[in-house]
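Input sequence (399 aa), recorded before submission:
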Amino acid sequence: MSTFMKLRELLGAIAGNRFQSSRLAVVGEITSIEDFTARVPFTTKADIVADHAAHPPFGSNLTFPRAAYTRFCQTSGTTAQPLAILDTPESWDWMLGNWARIYRECGIAPGDCVYFAFSFGPFLGFWTAFEGAAKYGCLCIPGGGLSSAARLRAIVQQRAAVVLCTPTYALHLAEVAAREGLALRDSAVRKIFVAGEPGGSVPAVRERISAAWNGAEVLDHYGMTEVGPVAFQRTGESDALHIIEESYFAEIIDPKTGAPVADGATGELVLTPLGREASPLLRYRTGDLVRRRAGEGFVLEGGILGRSDDMLVVRGVNIFPSAVDAILRALPEIAEYRVHVTRNGAMTELAIEIESDDDTAASRLAAKLTDSFTLRIPVTRVITGTLPRFELKARRWVR
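Predicted structure, token format:
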């Protein structure tokens, strides 16, 4: 089926979706892909945030009755309050099918032993990757709740052939292995499958991970909770991500004007999932900067090049300064703050200093940060007047 026919089917299937129907009310009949890109509005993170605020807790972007939904996931760190997104069994299975395509293209075979080196939490990528591998026929070993040393011992003892984690954590595991005297050359790992941050498509990072893991092939993946598993790096190929074109209609636009950019030019990736009817998104602006390789297929040269904003990735979780500021500004007892961004080996870390006359402010802020980002960020209360004040643009983030 052509991409346009899939778009037509999607638009027909979501006609009863309150969020989408209100946005499409004046669009009219779509008779071509050109119609779709010219007349259907972009969807932004702000649109979804506003809809969730107006229709808590799950928003109105639900195509089916609430009782039809069986899966809950949420975004990480892009707003002070993570966004809850629901899926039906059918939409969930569609995403697992995308993972089967990814595993196949990455040279992972049914029967391979795959180790998932992360704490699962409510994040879609973790669950779909795990369940997708199980459905594909792999032996899946979860590492949630274990220390890094315990995960390493399991990887070696269970003869895992594939490890899934963030690029940063792959390097951190190698450091822990050296500290614990665990020889990674004794492991059976032949592929490190990375996601959650752009390092998997950065040659220097990829080479460092491979060297630390006894020459294992490092393969990149890209996806988002809002849209699902999107792109993969083929085994034997480096510096490129392939969009699953059967499942996504992709565009690249100028972040400032919204106009399409030419092949080879850098722009913002826009995605329309073609099979996630339960919680659909049309022309979703991802905020990720990419460059399309000229030629056949929708290939992102160099993978994800960066963000159109100033996001940080802390232990695989996306952190935006605006999200941290929103949490702090909700606590009036905090007069001023400063965020220190440091590196602890391969890991990026945050620490926050606050000025407050309330001796419980630091602990309450730390709890709110953990609730919002599923991360422990240390907070220290300092003497009032210690932190700088700013007449012009504030520089509270110290790197």
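Checked by second reader. The CA atoms of residues 199 and 225 lie 19 Å apart.
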